[in-house]
Design brief:
Blueprint lengths: L12 E6 L2 E5 L11 E4 L5 E4 L9 H4 L10 E4 L5 H4 L7 E4 L4 H5 L13 H10 L31 E2 L5 E3 L4 E6 L8 E5 L4 E5 L16 H12 L5 E4 L5 E2 H15 L2
Parallel strand pairs: 4-5, 5-6, 6-7, 11-12
Antiparallel strand pairs: 1-2, 2-3, 3-4, 8-9, 9-10, 10-11, 12-13
């Protein structure tokens, strides 16, 4: 099957949102697993929020986006689902919530082939509103000799932990860590108070939310959404799909709270 896939050597795409912020995506990955990565540039350090599937090396793509590649680079894993930690091992500074530290260090094996994904998961994704899974999680390969069966979710031990109320400080940019359980027990987001910018990870994005699976909790998720609704947000950068504003955040929150009768 790999031989039938096109080659896309430009595996990652980058869009500059503003002078400080880059959005990095993997458009050749199935929409369910194609997570947003955000690179925030700072005076003293840069911050990479999540690291995708890791199908192709990420660090060589990220460093040219940085004005000073020698500056420290922090990789924050918002949670440890496969589409958020695939390339975490490429980075020297790795942050995660303590609840998910073990999974970051030694994640469960994963395959790009979807024939091993259970009917329960397939139905979960379909009911959430996603298109059916492809035979592979990718519709191209990053190199002509790429072997899909060589894919390994490596993980790496955290070099530091982040919990509710911590601050990630890049020198001229500081954001507060928010513990946002529901989709994942140790999921964290970031809120930049000065601009009202929320990095909402998989707690909220403008697409089908996944809330009924292993490690997920509807009561926690409902509390998380109410909390996000109460923040003085101006823009949300989610773990999937395009960014949006406060009005859309409120609409998404109300929709799911009504759906859950929470």
């Amino acid at each position: 099957m790999t031989a039938d896939l096109p080659v896309d050597a430009a595996w990652y795409r980058a869009e500059q949102i503003d002078p400080r912020l880059w959005l990095i995506t993997e458009p050749r990955v199935h929409p369910i697993f194609s997570a947003n990565m955000h690179l925030v540039l700072g005076r003293d350090a840069d911050l990479l929020i999540d690291s995708g599937m890791g199908v192709a090396p990420l660090r060589p793509f990220v460093d040219p986006l940085r004005p000073d590649p020698a500056r420290p680079l922090i990789c924050l894993s918002t949670h440890t689902h496969v589409d958020h930690i695939g390339a975490v091992h490429e980075f020297d500074t790795r942050l995660v919530h303590p609840i998910e530290a073990d999974e970051l260090a030694a994640p469960a094996p994963y395959s790009l082939r979807t024939d091993g994904i259970s009917d329960a998961f397939r139905n979960l994704f379909l009911e959430a509103g996603y298109e059916p899974l492809w035979p592979l999680l990718i519709n191209a390969v990053p190199a002509p000799d790429y072997d899909v069966d060589s894919y390994v979710l490596r993980g790496a031990p955290a070099t530091g932990m982040v919990t509710e109320g911590d601050v990630i400080d890049l020198g001229d940019w500081q954001a507060e860590v928010l513990h946002l359980p529901g989709h994942s027990p140790g999921q964290v987001g970031l809120f930049h108070h000065d601009s009202g910018t929320l990095f909402g990870t998989d707690a909220i994005y403008d697409g089908p939310l996944i809330y009924d699976g292993p490690g997920m909790s509807l009561p926690d998720y409902a509390r998380t959404l109410r909390r996000l609704r109460d923040l003085p947000v101006t823009v949300v950068h989610g773990g999937h799909d395009p960014c949006f504003g406060k009005q859309r955040l409120d609409e998404i929150v109300e929709r799911y709270l009504m759906l859950w009768q929470a």
